[in-house]
Specification:
7 helices, alpha/beta, Ubiquitin-like (UB roll), binds flavin-adenine dinucleotide, binds FE2/S2 (inorganic) cluster, 326 residues, 17 strands
Length: 326
């Protein structure tokens, strides 16, 4: 049975337990959210011992090489000595703007207190000083200085509720990351791009589109934003004006309920993508937002001819309860 050493506590990992489960049982758990390997908020470092390779999937190479891994995915056979990693991975950031982009989406701008290298479209993990950690995607370009995040307000949400009702401009949070490979690839300036997502999955799409246009992208860019109803298309103005200003950009909307009209289709996002780009072979594809929709869309574009290597996705996997609380 593997022995885990963390914050002065020694824990035996139980059969089938992940490192996160075992540390939670011992009352010394690091922050976590999705428990599915999607948000990277549970990143730990193995100072001694070897973390399982599948618990390092998606972790940036520079961190992987230094022993960082995802505690919610790790079921190591050998002993591990653990810590939270270098303090410089956490950056203090000040909330410099907080306002509604729609009834249930907040726009949040965070100014890191020191240099914070990132790409538009990647995600960061926000940590409140009194506990919860959650991941959010970046809609702004690095030159903007402050990071622009779009946060859907979830009823009873520990982070989104705090941002909506308690946090004030001037408050600080801790930022960790960035992570994820949903960003613009400068070395493919003529590749056609399909950027699709639901809900606040539009935030990374806006970031990637801004970056593509800033680099003078020459291929066509098709942006498809899906929502339950028209009210959820909170970036309609921003995307429409970018499409008007750039001949190679097309903006399309998909709603599950409502009336079809010019540029608006009623139907699930993956079906709409098939109609707009029937054969996405050689297209660069980015999919973000609801995990079920991302999964269906990824499958659809792959079966229609897109190469796996050309499909990048961030599924916004919500917080999962610890096993004992589920
Ligand atoms: C890689 C990544 C990027 C993300 N980017 C964004 C982003 O840019 N914008 C954004 O708004 N969110 C994003 N998320 C989701 C975000 O991290 C949080 O999960 C979300 O904001 C809810 O956190 P909360 O603390 O407000 O609610 P919690 O306290 O975590 O949740 C309250 C309750 O609501 C449930 N719940 C929360 N969200 C959902 C959901 N979508 N569907 C069903 N039940 C739910 C929870 O399970 C819980 O029971 C991202 C997630 C990942 C993994
Ligand atoms: S990646 Fe481990 S909790 Fe999300």
């Amino acid at each position: 049975m593997a022995e885990l050493r963390y914050r002065g506590t020694v824990v035996q990992r139980g059969e089938d337990e992940t490192v996160l489960d075992a540390l939670e049982r011992a009352g010394v758990a690091p922050p976590s959210s999705c428990r599915a390997g999607a948000c990277q908020s549970c990143l730990l470092r193995a100072r001694a011992g070897t973390p399982p390779a599948d618990a390092q999937r998606g972790v940036r190479e520079s961190l992987r090489l230094r022993g960082y891994f995802l505690a919610c995915r790790a079921r190591p056979d050998g002993d591990l000595e653990l810590d939270d990693g270098d303090e410089d991975r956490q950056v203090e950031a000040e909330i410099v703007e907080l306002g509604h982009l729609s009834d249930d989406v907040l726009g949040v701008r965070l100014m890191p207190r020191r240099a914070f290298e990132h790409r538009a479209g990647q995600y960061v993990t926000l940590r409140r000083h009194d506990g919860p950690s959650r991941s959010y995607s970046i809609a702004s370009l690095p030159e903007a200085g402050a990071l622009e995040l779009h946060v859907r307000v979830v009823p009873g949400g520990a982070m989104s509720g705090w941002l909506a009702h308690t946090a004030r401009v001037g408050d600080t949070v801790s930022l960790q990351g960035p992570a994820g490979d949903c960003f613009y690839l400068q070395d493919r300036p003529t590749q056609d791009l399909l950027l699709a997502g639901t809900g606040t999955g539009a935030a990374p799409l806006l970031g990637i589109l801004r970056d593509a246009l800033r680099h003078g992208h020459r291929g066509q860019v098709v942006v498809v934003h899906g929502a339950r109803t028209h009210a959820g298309l909170y970036l309609e103005q921003a995307f429409s004006s970018l499409a008007r200003a750039h001949a190679n950009v097309r903006y399309h909307r998909a709603v599950l309920a409502g009336e079809p009209s010019d540029g608006v289709t009623v139907g699930p996002l993956d079906a709409v993508l098939s109609d707009l780009v029937p054969v996405p072979k050689d297209w660069g594809i980015v999919l973000c937002g609801d995990p079920g929709v991302v999964h269906a869309a990824r499958r659809r574009v792959f079966l229609a001819g897109a190469a796996m290597a050309d499909i990048r996705a961030d599924a916004f996997v919500p917080t999962a309860a610890a096993p004992g609380l589920a």
